[in-house]
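This section describes the prediction task in plain terms. A model, or a person checking by hand, is given the sequence of a single protein chain and must write out its three-dimensional structure as a string of tokens. No templates, partner chains or ligands are provided. The sample shown here is typical of the held-out split.
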Amino acid sequence: MIRFIIIILFILIFFIVSIILLPITWLIGVFNKKAMRNISLSIIKWVFSTIVWLTGTKLEVRGLENVPDDQPVLYVGNHRSFFDIVISMIYVKRVTGYVAKKETKKVPFLAQWMVNLNCLFLDRNDIKQGLNIILKAIDLVKEGYSICIFPEGTRNKEEGTFLPFHEGSFKIAQKSGCLIQPFVFYNSAAIFEDHFPKVKSSHVILEYLPTIDMKAMEKEEAKHIGAYTQKIIEEAYFKIKAEVSNQ
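The expected answer:
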């Protein structure tokens, strides 16, 4: 419980500091949007790295060399924990907008940092708004920014299972022509969700898998890109699980 309290205090301090930092980033953005986004990314990476450190988590990151340095990608992965966003943001190689639920936009200060980083707020109950979010994401990728989406649509609450990947999530890659960057989390819910409200030191594995190029796929295979990508991520997950179990 002590870790949880310390993390909350750290976040509150950051929000207070944001009263100064956000106007500064806004002013920079008036003259140079790209610089504003890069500065915001550096700040958030530091904040998220500190939060992970405060949890006492042993974080093992694999396959980072699979993530391209020279082009935007569509990150897609499984989703079990609030910490999936915190951890994965630390390792993005360029400004990356996350597709988040609309309720996040109501959180003071956090919402503005997310806007600085091209995050998009999705109303799951509004199909038309969902299509507009996909179109905005496509435009951002064409401008050179990466996008991260969790195609299960929500956090999966049962370890070792996967919700069906929504095919619509992959329209971002299909229409923009960017590569799909699959990643898999193992044991991330052990930090917080598995014993809410306690935060516990855990061993979490994040693995980036080889990219997927939809342009190189057979037409019929590309039609089911959600199921195709889910299978790859599931196989990687259970391979990690078997490895950990045998240690």
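For orientation: The first strand starts at residue 58 and ends at 62.
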